[in-house]
Amino acid sequence: MMMVRSFSNWLKYRQAVSQLSHLNARKLADVGIAPAEIRAVARKACF
């Protein structure tokens, strides 16, 4: 069960990184995220 949850969280993380990466810097700034913070923000949200 733990492995399934870990895989599910990893998929959510990858999807979040992908979606945030498609936003330009201005849109990211509107929600308070710098482009360099995308992975950290996605990690915090998914794990």
Automatic annotation (TrEMBL):
It comes from the Bacteria. Residues 4-39 form the YjiS-like domain. It holds the Pfam family YjiS-like. This is DUF1127 domain-containing protein. It comes from Martelella alba.
